């Protein structure tokens, strides 16, 4: 079995109502007023990949607990009750209020089932609570019976249109945007295969996976980067030498040196070693590359760690933290926690950081010096923004400025990887 065939075999088939073929019309979507206005300068081509095989679509979790919501479409939609097969045509309705009523989803005046698939008409996008997304929308009642999960069924390439501009400045160099597109596409497929089969969605739209802002993140530069790399992903060898679609991690700024994946995420990915990156310092904002000292009291440390990891309750209260392993550039990769009762536990450095600061915006990385005192922990001499594994976005921009191609950028941050092309969409 060749690599492309194997990758296709990894992808789940999707159970969704087939959408009509788009007719090649040019659609004008204003970034600020998606339904009510149209500006020529914001004109974009039709939804990319709407004609693509169903197995190549992605399920993106948009919202986890909606109780009532509004849906707008430029040309109406159809709604299908999953399970009872009822199909309602809303071609004459461009805006509707929806809610959960007695265990069923109400669409306008129609009370359907606990799961509903909404399929927009051409130009195949919808606006949910003011945010626009391409593709279809599936609504599923949660187990609590009081809220609804909203999942966007979207062609992979159209999904990327909403990712690249949310993850990287869209005015950056084209080669940096292309590198980001390949990394994001690869990461998406890896997460989809690893976790999608066990749940109703493949990937989240937040930093828990990768940012996805839908139509608001699109522009012509982003679109060109996605189209120029259509279907291109990275594969690399695992520990046994077998090629697979690995999670192509990336972060904002590595602080001058990326980190080995195994020390940050606990896996052993051959294409993701640490490499020196001299380019990001000149691109990153100064306050994100060299960030201000951050202090946490021991009470804060103990409370936040135990709130995140119930298993640490056995320590009673955390009274001491020691660094027991550092990466090549001084990044804290493992700490030992000591409790009031003398018991100890270990934690990876990145998990430690995100326990103290779940937003990741104050303690911006764990590439820092940690100093202990009786009062708490001081993190200083900090560099970089993010986990530091894989592609450094600021570094990619720095390399692109110096004339490096996206292929060279990807080879630098993902050594031992190989670029291949798979089928993801029909030609736009």
Question: What are the main properties of this structure?
Answer:
six-stranded antiparallel beta sheet; 10 helices; 2 domains; 428 residues; seven-stranded mixed beta sheet; globular; alpha+beta
Structure description:
With 428 residues, this protein is of the alpha+beta class. The protein has two domains: 222 residues, no CATH class; 141 residues, no CATH class. The strands form eight sheets. Strands 6-5-10-13-14-3-15 form a seven-stranded mixed sheet. The chain has a six-stranded antiparallel sheet with strand order 9-8-7-4-11-12. Strands 17-16-28 form a three-stranded antiparallel sheet. A hairpin with a 5-residue loop joins strand 16 and strand 17. Helix 3 packs across helix 4. The longest helix has 22 residues. The chain starts with a helix and ends in a 7-residue tail after the last strand. The N terminus is likely disordered.
């Amino acid at each position: 079995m060749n690599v492309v065939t194997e990758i296709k075999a990894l992808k789940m088939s999707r159970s969704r109502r087939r959408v009509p073929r788009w007719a090649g019309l040019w659609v004008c979507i204003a970034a600020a007023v998606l339904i009510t206005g149209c500006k020529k300068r914001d004109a974009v081509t039709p939804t990319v990949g709407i004609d693509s095989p169903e197995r190549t679509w992605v399920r993106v979790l948009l919202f986890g607990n909606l109780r009532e919501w509004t849906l707008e479409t430029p040309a109406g939609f159809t709604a299908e009750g999953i399970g009872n097969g009822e199909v309602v045509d809303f071609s004459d309705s461009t805006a509707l209020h929806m809610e959960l009523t007695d265990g069923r989803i109400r669409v306008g005046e129609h009370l359907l089932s606990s799961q509903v698939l909404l399929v927009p008409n051409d130009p195949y996008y919808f606006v949910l609570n003011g945010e626009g997304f391409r593709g279809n929308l599936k609504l599923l009642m949660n187990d609590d019976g009081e809220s609804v999960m909203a999942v966007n069924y979207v062609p992979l390439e159209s999904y990327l249109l909403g990712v690249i501009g949310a993850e990287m400045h869209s005015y950056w160099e084209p080669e940096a945007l292309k590198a980001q597109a390949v990394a994001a596409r690869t990461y998406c497929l890896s997460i989809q295969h690893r976790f999608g089969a066990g749940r109703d969605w493949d990937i989240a739209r937040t930093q828990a996976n990768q940012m996805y802002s839908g139509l608001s993140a699109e522009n012509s530069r982003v679109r060109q980067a996605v189209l120029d790399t259509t279907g291109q992903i990275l594969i690399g060898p695992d520990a046994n030498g077998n090629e697979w679609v690995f999670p192509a991690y990336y972060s904002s700024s590595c602080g001058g040196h990326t980190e080995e994946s195994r020390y940050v995420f606990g896996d052993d990915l051959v294409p993701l070693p640490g490499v020196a990156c001299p380019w990001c310092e000149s691109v990153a904002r100064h306050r994100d590359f060299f960030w201000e000292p951050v202090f946490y009291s021991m009470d804060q440390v103990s409370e936040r760690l135990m709130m995140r990891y119930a298993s640490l309750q056995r320590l009673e209260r955390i009274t001491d933290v020691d660094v027991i392993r550092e990466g090549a550039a001084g990044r804290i990769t493992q700490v030992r926690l000591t409790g009031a009762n003398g018991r100890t536990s270990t934690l990876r450095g990145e998990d430690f950081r995100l326990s103290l600061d779940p937003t990741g915006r104050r303690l911006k990385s764990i590439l820092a010096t940690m100093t202990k005192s009786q009062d708490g922990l001081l993190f200083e001499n900090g560099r970089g923004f993010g986990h530091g594994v894989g592609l450094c976005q600021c570094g990619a921009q720095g390399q692109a400025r110096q004339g490096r191609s996206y292929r060279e950028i990807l080879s630098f941050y993902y050594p031992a990887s190989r670029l291949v092309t798979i089928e993801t969409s029909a030609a736009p």
